C-alpha cells in the first residue's frame, strides 16, 4: 500500500555526525538532489577546524544544514525541522537548536555506553525520557548498512560501516521525495578507483531508500513543490566556487592573464585549489612561501601587466598590509580577497564573522585609502569579484573583496548569467610618451585620476616605481612637504571619486512610509532580509538597504540615513560599520551585534526590528 | 623618471650611457655601490637585451636604491620582499630579464624566507646580494652577516649573534647558481654577472661591498690584498699563488703547497653540492684566502618554464578555457 504523501512549503534539515562520518558529503548530495527538483535552497556547512577530532567527541561534530522551499528563501534557516544525528555527540551538540516538536533521526547503533560517555551523557537520551517532546526515529543505520553490504566483496567491515552516511542519505531522500539517480551517478565518478566501495555506497543508498518505503516507523513522506524562480538555467554554487569563477570571468572580460598568489588558509584555500585546476584558462596559481609573498607576487605580476589577485582570511590579511600599502603608493591594480573568519589571532578558523571591516579600511600605515566591495550571498561572490576587478583596473588601485566563512562554504541555486551580459571591464596599457616625447608615470586621467599602466616590454616607457613618496606627475622621489600633502589628498580623492561611478544605495520601502531603516552589508543580507519579510508579514513597516560598496559608500548614503527616524544595523562584529556611519554622517545608527561565529537567526533579528518599530 | 629617448626596439647596440637614468646617484661618496653600479651599467649592453625587457627589483636599504639609477623598468619595493615580488613578475612574464638587488639585512634577515624559496624554486631571477656586513641606511646596526663580537650602535658590548655565510645559505637552499665577487673588481664581477645572466633559473651572486661610513674595511683582507683572492675557474686546479686545496679522506679541505699535487679541480656543474658548500665556507682565517667566482652552476628547469608548460599542456588537452562552458559545467537544471 503506497504511503501517504504530505505537501510542505519548506523544510530545514541538519545532518550531524562525527567529522569522519561524511556529513558534508551527505549534505552536499542531498542539496544537489534538492536543487535538481527546483526548490529554492540555502546551505550552511558548519564543521570543526580539526580534520579528525577524537571520534565520538563533541568537538569532532560536523554539521550541514540545508533549507529548501517552494518559494524564494534567503537563509539556511534558523532552527532545523529535522535533525539527523549519527552519534550521541552529534545529538548533544545540536539538541539546543532543535525546536520542540521537531523530528530527530538517530543511529541507534551508535548509542553505545562508550559513545554516550564520550559525549558526556550519563544515561542514554533515547531511554531517559529527555526527548519526549520530539518525534524520535531510532534507526539501526550502522547495522542495517552492514547487513545490506554483506554480499559486497573486497571491503572491510570498517569500510562497510562507513557507508552508513549513504544509507542515511537514501532514507532522507525517500522521506522528502528527492531523486537518488544523480547520486548514484556521482558515486560512480567519485569512487571510480575503487569499484567495490562504489558498489557498497550505491547499495547503502538504495537500502536506505527502501527502508523508508517499507518501515512502519515512517508513515508519511513529504513533497516540496518547485519554487517559482526566474526562468533560466541554474546550478548550485558555493561562495568560494563563485568567487573563483568571478575571477576567471574578470580575467576574460578584461583580457588580462590571471595571476593568483596565495598561501593555504581556512576558509579561503578552496579558491586556490579551484583556480589551480583551471590552467586551461591560462590561470597562474602561485602557492607562495607565506602570505606576504602571496601578496607580493601578485603585485609583481600586476606590474608586469597581469590581473594580480591574492586571497586569504584575517590572519593572512594582516601580513599583506605592507604590500597593499605599496600597491597604493605605486597605484597598481591588485585585488585582495578576505574570506573573513572569527578572530582575533587564529580565532575560530571555520566560523564566519564580519570583524575585518575596520582592518581592511584602516589597517595600514599612513593615509592609505582602499576601495572595499563586499559579497552578500554565495552566488553574489561571482559578481562582486568582477566588480572588485573593475574598480582595481579602472582606478589602478588595490581593492578589497570581502566574503566570509558562511558565504564561502554555503551554497544556493544560481541563475547562471549569460556571458554576453557580463560587463566589459577591459583596460588599456600605456603605449607611448604622454607628454611630448616624455613618459610621465604619474600624469593622471582627469576623470578617474588613474595613472597610466606602463608594463615592461614597452619601449621608451622605462620607469621606476617605489614606495617612497613620489613627485606629482613625474613620479620621481620627493620629500617636498607641499607635494606630500598634495599626493596624499590626490590618493584620497581618487578613491572617494569612485562613488560617482557606483550605483546609488537602493532602499526597499514598499509603502514608502516606514519609520525604521534596517541596514545590512555582507552575508547578513540573507538573515536580515528574511527578518524584514517576517516583520512586514506581521503588519509592521520597515525599510531595508544593503551596502555592496563599503568604500567609498554610495553617494546618497547620508540622504538615505537621514530620511528615517531610526536606523538599525545588525553586524557580526561589535558595530564596525555602525561606528563609521555615525562618524561620517552624524546619524544615530543603532547597532545590533552578535559574534558567535554563526550567522544571525532571522527570528532574533525580527524581534529586534519589531522592538524598534514598536517603540 | 623621464622615459628617455624612445625604445631601442630590435636594434640592440647599447652603451653604458643607455643604462644610466637621469636620477642623481645618492650613495655616500666612496661607497662600494658606485663601483657595482658602474660595472652593471657597463655590462648590461653585452646582454643584447632591449632595455624595456629588463627589470630591476629591490627591497629596502642602501643597495635597494639601485633600480632608480638604471634606465630600465624598476621596482623599489618593500624591505625583504624583492624576491617574492620578482617571482610574481618573472612568472607572469617569462619574456623579461629580471634582476633583484639586495643587501645582507634585506636578503638574509627580513627577507630570508623569500630568498630561500626563490632559490629552491629556481625562478629565473638574477639575485645580487651586496654584502657589507652592516645596516647602512639605518645608520650602523649589526647585520646577519656581521661577525660575532662586532661592536655597533645596537651592540655596544659586541654582537653575540653568529653570522650567516650567504653562499652557504644559497647552496643549502638548493640554488642552481651560486657565485661571489668583489665590488671594486670590475673584471671579476663582470665575469660572474655574465655567467649569472647566461644561467637558466635563479642565479645568486654575493658581492663583497664596502660601506666606508659604518663598516669601513670589512673586506680589506681580500678587497685590498689581492693575493688573498682565490679565483675558482672551471676545469682548473683550485689554487692561488703557490698554494692549493686538496680534499682529505673524511671530506674536509686542506691547504697544501701546490707542488705536492693532487689538488682539487673545480667543477661547478658537479651535481653533489657538498664540495661547493665546503669551498663557500673557506675564509682567510681558515684557508688564507677568499674563494671568488662561480661555486655552483647546475641545470634544473626554471620555475616559470614549468608553470607555463603545465598551462600549455592543460590547454592542449582541454582546449582554451571557455567561460560559458565553465559556468554551466556540473549539474544544472532549467526553470521555464
Summarize the structure.
By secondary structure, chain A is of the alpha/beta class. Chain A is built from 20 helices and 23 strands. Chain B is built from 11 helices and 12 strands.
Molecular structure report:
The complex is a heterodimer of chains A (about 625) and B (about 325). By secondary structure, chain A is of the alpha/beta class. Chain A is built from 20 helices and 23 strands. A seven-stranded mixed sheet of chain A has the order 11-10-12-13-15-14-21, sandwiched between helices. A six-stranded mixed sheet of chain A has the order 3-4-2-5-6-7, with helices on both faces. In chain A, helix 4 packs across helix 8, helix 6 packs parallel to helix 8 and helix 7 (about 180-190) packs antiparallel against helix 8 (about 195-215). The termini of chain A are far apart. The model of chain A has no long low-confidence stretch (mean pLDDT about 95). Chain B has about 325 residues and is an alpha/beta fold. Chain B is built from eleven helices and twelve strands. Chain B has helices at about 30-45, 80-90, 105-110, 110-120, 165-170, 185-200, 220-225, 275-280, 285, 305-320, 325, and strands at about 55-60, 75, 95-105, 125-130, 175-180, 205-210, 230, 240, 245, 255, 290-295, 330-335. In chain B, the strands form two sheets. Chain B has an eight-stranded mixed sheet, sandwiched between helices. Chain B has a three-stranded antiparallel sheet with strand order 8-9-10, with no helix packed on it. In chain B, a hairpin with a 5-residue loop joins strand 9 and strand 10 (about 255). Chains A and B meet through helix 1, strand 9, helix 9, helix 11 and helix 12 of A and strand 1, strand 2, helix 2, helix 4 and helix 10 of B.
The helix content of chain B, as a percent range, equals: 25-40%
Shape of chain B: globular
Please state the average pLDDT score of chain A. Answer: 96
Tell me what portion of residues of chain B adopts beta-strand conformation: 15-25%
Order of helices and strands of chain B: HEEHEHHEHEHEHEEEEHHEHHE
Nearest-angstrom radius of gyration of chain B?
A: 22 Å
Low-confidence stretches of chain B: 1-9
Number of distinct helices of chain A: 20
Q: What is the makeup of the main sheet of chain A?
A: 7 strands, mixed
Give the low-confidence spans of chain A.
none
Binned, the helix content of chain A reads: 25-40%
Strand content of chain A: 15-25%
Q: Measured on Cα atoms, how large is the radius of gyration of chain A?
A: 27 Å
Largest interface by Cβ-Cβ < 8 Å: A-B, 77 and 69 residues
The N- to C-terminal Cα distance of chain B equals: 60 Å
Strand order of the largest sheet of chain B: 2-1-3-4-6-5-11-7
Oligomer: heterodimer
Shape of chain A: globular
Q: Determine the number of helices of chain B (DSSP H or I, runs of at least 4 residues).
A: 11
Major sheet characteristics of chain B: 8 strands, mixed
What order do the strands of the largest sheet of chain A run in, or round the barrel if closed?
11-10-12-13-15-14-21
